[in-house]
Amino acid sequence: LVLAQSVTDAQRLLRLGCRDVRVVGNLKFDVVVSDQARKQASLWRSGLGSRPVVMLASTREGEELLWLQALQSQPDRLEQLKALGVLWLLVPRHPQRFDEVNALLAQAALLCERRSAWGDREPDAARMTSADVVLGDSLGEMQTYYLVSRMALLGGSFAPLGGQNLIEAAACGCPVVMGPHTFNFAEAAELAEEAGAAERVSDMAQAVTTAMRMVASGPDENAHVQACMAFTQAHRGAAQRTVDALLPYLK
Q1: How many CB atoms lie within 10 A of CB 94?
Q2: pLDDT in tens, 156-202
Q3: What is the pLDDT of residue 219?
């Protein structure tokens, strides 16, 4: 017995000679958004205020520079973002890069607040009013980051690195803007795009433009959130199907 994530995977396994292949789906769809994350997100929102948060989720080396170049490529873009009240939330994939990314933001003359400085408290509302970027320099808080964000630009997809997991973002009701490189999560990316839970763009400059459009269009953004919830709900159940397939062997 071989359990496959997708029909495509099952076909490949059959060509390799596997005989009993069953498609059970992607276990990542069974993610549960924790009560702790929801409680923490509520606390953070008290300090973040009404500013729309746009997250750069799990960025990889070079992608922060692409983002900065996209911001600076058009003289009026930063002013438009400020008019919309956008607060950027930048969460690098690897913790050893936190200080490096912080230095890059300082070099770009962006006012940055580090999540690590908050401790167990809510963000300082006065400081959040003037901040350009929050650096998500913590571990184990991705769900909270997604819950406070209006949308997320998917790290790893703007450089040829295959993208990161977008399912957890969708489970938190956070629509995703993804670049051209999503081969690590090819089926999930395709399904999310079809469901309206994700939008694909050609590069980082287009991603920033798309984020501005989504922030400016409230009703459209709400439709994206509903699409996220419907998308994740529609594909749940892989864990149960896996257990059901294995139980006869355990008996």
Answers
A1: 12
A2: 999 999 999 999 999 999 999 999 999 999 999 999 999 999 999 99
A3: 67
Q: Which residue has the tokens 């980051």?
A: 145
Ordered DSSP codes for the chain: -EEESSHHHHHHHHHTT-SSEEE---GGGG----HHHHHHHHHHHHHHTTPPEEEEEEE-TTHHHHHHHHHHSSTTHHHHHHHHT-EEEEEESSGGGHHHHHHHHHHTT--EEEGGGTTTSPPPHHHHHH-SEEE---SS-HHHHHHT-SEEEETTTTTTT-----HHHHHTT--EEE-S--GGGHHHHHHHHHHTSEEE-SSHHHHHHHHHHHHH-HHHHHHHHHHHHHHHHHT--HHHHHHHHHHHHH-
Distance separating alpha carbons of residues 144 and 44, to the nearest angstrom:
9
Q: How far apart are CA 239 and CA 234, in angstroms?
A: 14
Give the mean model confidence (pLDDT) for residues 215-224: 80
pLDDT digits (tens, 9 = 90+) for 69-104: 999 888 788 889 989 999 999 999 999 999 999 999
Long-range CB contacts for residues 113-122, cutoff 8 Å, separation at least 24: 115/141, 118/47, 122/43, 122/44, 122/46, 122/47
Q: What is the mean pLDDT of the chain?
A: 95
167, 162, 168: which is closest to 144 by C-alpha?
Answer: 168
Proportion of the chain above pLDDT 70, given as a percent: 100
C-alpha–C-alpha distance, residues 21 and 8, integer Å: 11
Residue 251 reports pLDDT greater than 80: no
Both tokens of 32, joined, read 């549960």
Q: Are 82 and 132 in contact (CB under 8 A)?
A: no
